[in-house]
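Deliverable D2.4 — example input (structure tokens):
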């Protein structure tokens, strides 16, 4: 299925409009060509292989390809959230030989025009970045919030043994309740999630800028967004349902193209209490790696001041390897004009 490329885009520079790019909606048949273009992207932590099919089925999402001489050279996904007011930009990738030529900018502009034509109520564009923002970025974007990125790797079997040595094997929540002055974390079901996040203001002081960031996707606290989140395989946890100080969301592990038997685990941690954050981190690790066999890349996003003590805990107590030094996840937005 081809998109009408005659969309009016008066702001496109003439040189770019004549760049010889064709745009189309991605299909199942494009998968292999996209993956060939995407080799080594995101340091081997590319989520697209496991999400591509589901992305194509989401009614509020469009996945756009840019082609040059018939070959796929770039991809971008746009998802409309926040009651139709926000365009979430995800999954950008450009073929290695085409990088640095302005392809990403042309594709983004095309996507913006397409979304505006289909969803005229869209007001802002949001994206999440993990690189350093420069002066030009601050001219284009407003920063919504920042989280520190803690990336560690380990063998699942080794972590299971280490947790057992620490007395945290088996029923880890019971172990935590006896080894800590804090009660064990609470897993939330859908009813509790809805009540806590949507019918009270208890999460306002826990979430950064009242934003749920789940696996790089920023959501405002709205029923329409919660409907999207509750369709996903996510573990939701808080320290106390009556007066929460720390909350976390953890994806179920999925394979990533680093190599055979490599898995990725994403944990979004909110709140400023280190002890409570450690408790929930341990619960997620034990719950989601106990039955795995192989290597795990675990990426946790947390309040920046917690990064250093949490990294030391991972290295010195859990004996897991720190993959990289401190980096930041920045949620930014710009007006759609």
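Example output (designed residues):
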């Amino acid at each position: 299925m081809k998109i009408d490329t005659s969309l009016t885009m008066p702001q496109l520079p003439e040189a770019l409009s004549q760049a010889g790019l064709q745009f189309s909606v991605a299909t199942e048949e494009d998968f292999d060509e996209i993956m060939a273009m995407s080799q080594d992207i995101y340091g081997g932590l590319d989520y697209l292989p496991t999400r591509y099919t589901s992305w194509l089925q989401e009614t509020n999402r469009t996945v756009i390809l840019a082609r040059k001489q018939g070959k796929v050279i770039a991809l971008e996904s746009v998802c409309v959230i926040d009651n139709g007011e926000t365009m979430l930009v995800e999954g950008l990738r450009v073929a290695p030989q085409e990088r640095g030529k302005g392809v990403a900018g042309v594709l983004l502009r095309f996507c913006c025009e397409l979304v505006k034509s289909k969803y005229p109520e869209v007001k802002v564009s949001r994206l999440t970045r993990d690189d350093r923002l420069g002066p030009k970025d601050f001219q284009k974007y407003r920063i919504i919030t920042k989280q520190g990125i803690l990336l560690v790797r380990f063998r699942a079997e080794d972590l299971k043994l280490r947790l057992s040595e620490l007395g945290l094997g088996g029923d880890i929540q019971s172990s935590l309740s006896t080894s800590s002055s804090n009660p064990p974390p609470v897993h939330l079901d859908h009813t509790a999630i809805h009540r806590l996040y949507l019918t009270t203001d208890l999460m306002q002081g826990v979430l950064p800028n009242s934003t749920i960031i789940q696996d790089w996707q920023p959501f405002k606290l709205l029923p329409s967004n919660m409907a999207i989140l509750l369709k996903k395989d996510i573990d939701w946890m808080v320290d106390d349902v009556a007066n929460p100080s720390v909350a976390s969301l953890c994806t179920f592990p999925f394979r990533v193209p680093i190599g055979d038997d490599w898995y990725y685990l994403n944990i979004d941690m909110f709140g400023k209490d280190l002890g409570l954050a450690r408790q929930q981190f341990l619960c997620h690790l034990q719950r989601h790696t106990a039955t795995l066999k192989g290597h795990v890349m675990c990426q946790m996003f947390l309040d920046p001041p917690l990064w250093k003590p949490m990294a030391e805990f991972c290295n010195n107590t859990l004996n897991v390897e720190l993959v990289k030094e401190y980096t930041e996840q920045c949620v930014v937005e710009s007006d759609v004009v």
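Residues 155 and 171 are 20 Å apart (CA to CA).
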